[in-house]
Amino acid sequence: HAGDGPGGGVGEAQAGERGQGVQGGGGAVPGQEEGAELRARPREVLGVQKGLGARAEEGGLVPPQGRARAQALLDTKDFAGASEQLRALLLAGHGNAATLNTLAKIARLRFAYADARAIARVSMAADLRAQGVEAPFLAARNAASTIAGPRDIWPFVRAAALSIATKPDTVTFCTMTLEQYDDYADPAPLADLLERTVALDGSLTDRRAQALIALNQAERAVEVVEHMLEAPDAPKQKLAVVYSQALSFMDDLTGARRASGAALALGENALSVREALRLCVLEGDYARGLALLTHAQECKIELGDMLPRKMYFGARMIGEALKMFVEIPHKAPLQAHFRDKYYDCTDPEAQAAGGLLVLPIFGPGDELRFASIYNLLPDILPHKSFTLGCEPRLHALFARSFPRIPFVSIKRLRFDRLDLADYNTLPGSDLIGVLDNRGMAALREADQVALVTDFLHKALPDYDAFPGAAYLTPDADGARAWSAQLPKGPLVGLSWRSSLTTHSRNEHYLTVEELAPLFAIPGVTFVNLQYDDCAEELAWVEAR
């Protein structure tokens, strides 16, 4: 039942109180005992019958306008209103997987992870088919968010195994989650167990093929797709795209290009164009990619922000590339939660008011890169004053480098464990990638808020706009100490990948072999700044 104000909503539970039951506003709602019963016996407590969702859908009993109203309210972050709409559908007998899954998502947005998992279990009991296949992943995702000790690992593993069984391409999320809790259990054998779920799955589906790609088994993914293509009713365009992806991860770019071309021939849409652009980036064919991008934009094909940005960077269209940052997905929830405060500099009717809080985004490396415009912001921003958020580990560096700019430390959650005590004042869990409690306090005091990426294209519209000067000031004592230890002459630090490596992220990074030409430059000392296990790669470099 939907409560009012922060903390209210479907499956409300106080942050940090794992599984305290469904609480909230007025009306007959389960209390703590009933909440525990709900999690233990969801089908019996709610009276959900297996297949109920399927029968309701087939009978045309679910009013689409009710769902549409709930989604509209959810889009504006009115969790209580959206919950009330969905509750009305349930009370009217329209309980099905789609409704329950949305309720689970709302509970997650309210940090009620245990309740979100319980609702997902109800959804699975109602209908494991059709939209119901989303529920196992929702259950696994929320089981991950409730891990508080070693005893919670196996419940997550069980939920993860079911998620992978129904949606094999969730295997990467599940195995990466285990790595976050390596102090509770050795992740290697558990990850191997989950990966074997995919290996033992004999089904022929595109999701399984994508899971095999994620597990670096592209050859097996190719076999799955080739078998599927033999069926007369096979989804040929989707399979052609997966085929292209698998071949590209086998370094067969010629074959991937043929498969991608077949997908384009079956229809120009987001699926086929995005894959074609991805291959253009891998091959460095920016002329073809730019022509394809321009055509897709003329046809109003939605491509997201990343691939167009890569294409513009490759074509040396720096202003256009940086402008794509205004479309990053992190911006939408921030705008929705704070629509009266968000300052959108791309809106010609936007009015500056008072003080502005400028929030960083992405990882520390990106933040260091974006800091190159900090000295330019006073000339760009029309506000009376502004404050910049920053990663806590960078606060001393930035305060020293930009003494006229006030900074507030904000711990943005990316791939780390969630400590609810640092985020329990946020209006939604979809903000933990941009805010914590300190950032939320600063936002309340500010008149307006924006992401730093909104201003990149304004600060650097072309290559001539780059100042070409150092903008970071080292600690003087630290510089002297290191200077005494390091050799004289030019020093170049190298870090060639993120600590988070997946099949899809790896294409953003270099291998040490690809850096080899740099090592031939005379008179330069290279310093290893790679922060994960790279002993074998260093041995390869030293052997040269």
Describe the structure.
With 544 residues, this protein is mainly alpha-helical. The protein is 49% helix and 5% strand. It has 27 helices and six strands. The protein has helices at residues 32-40, 42-46, 52-58, 64-75, 79-91, 97-109, 113-126, 134-145, 153-166, 171-180, 187-199, 206-214, 218-229, 236-249, 253-265, 270-283, 286-298, 306-314, 318-323, 331-337, 364-370, 377-380, 395-401, 437-445, 456-459, 476-485, 535-543, and strands at residues 355-359, 385-390, 407-409, 448-451, 491-494, 525-528. The strands form two sheets. A four-stranded parallel beta sheet has the order 3-2-1-4. Strand 2, helix 23 (395-401) and strand 3 (407-409) form a beta-alpha-beta unit. Helix 15 (253-265) packs antiparallel against helix 16. The protein is globular, with a radius of gyration of 25 Å. It starts with 31 loop residues before the first helix and ends with a helix.
